[in-house]
Amino acid sequence: MTTGSGPAADPWTLVQPESSRRLLTAAIEAFAEQGYHATTTRDIAQRAGMSPAALYVHYPSKASLLGRISRVGHEAALALVQQAISDGADPLDRLRLLVTRFVAWHAEHHRVARIVQYELGSLPEPDRQVAIRQRREIEALVAEQIREGAACGQLRVDEPRRVARAILSLGVDVARWYDPAGHDTPAVIGALYADLAARMLGARE
Fold it and tell me: Which positions ≥6 away from 25 have C-beta within 8 Å?
């Protein structure tokens, strides 16, 4: 699996207790199908097979559910990028790995990714600031690989931070259009985007 293993591959395994995980899963389904603003806490509770009162035992509001989904999703994306950097042999190899895995994750987990990436404006301010910090950390890690690749002659690129943002934006957008019933698998799409990123950066294999 291109997305790796552990929490990055299945970030919800760390959410405990099981009833809290069920509510998050139900919220993801509801937000993905109906949109955050059109979803009620009753909708979420019914999907989880629980009462609205039981929901409030775990989460004080719909916004807190969105905040938890955002944190778990961003933490998974960050862990994925960090692992790719750890696994790569050199800057270009690390860049290819992280693009492959980042894109494949956004396809495989497209419902979660759509919520995480496109509901930023709906987050309560503390959660929004956490998400922004996590995004900046991911961007900085990618920019560093681009910067190192340029320094050693593997890449030909100016303004690594802006280029990193552009590459990540391409990967994020996969969650918007990906269809599991389509021809291409997440792994195939991830590999394609890694090749595109390498070419964009003037990679010298």
Answer: 12, 48
Task: Name the amino acid, one letter, at 104.
Answer: A
Pick the CATH number of 62-200 from 2.40.50.100, 3.10.450.50, 1.10.357.10, 3.30.360.20: 1.10.357.10
> How far is Cα 143 from Cα 159, in angstroms, rounded to an integer?
9
Can you give the pTM of this predicted structure?
Answer: 0.89
Mean pLDDT, to the nearest integer, of 48-59?
A: 91
pLDDT tens digits, 114-167: 999 888 899 999 999 999 999 999 999 999 999 999 999 999 998 999 999 999
CATH superfamily, domain at 12-60? Homeodomain-like (1.10.10.60)
HSE-CB for 55 with a 13 A CA cutoff? 24
Q: What angle do CA 10, 52, 130 make, to 5 degrees?
A: 45
List, in sequence order, the alpha helices (H) in 36-109. 41-47, 52-58, 62-87, 91-108
Sorted by where each begins, the domain ranges of the chain are 12-60, 62-200
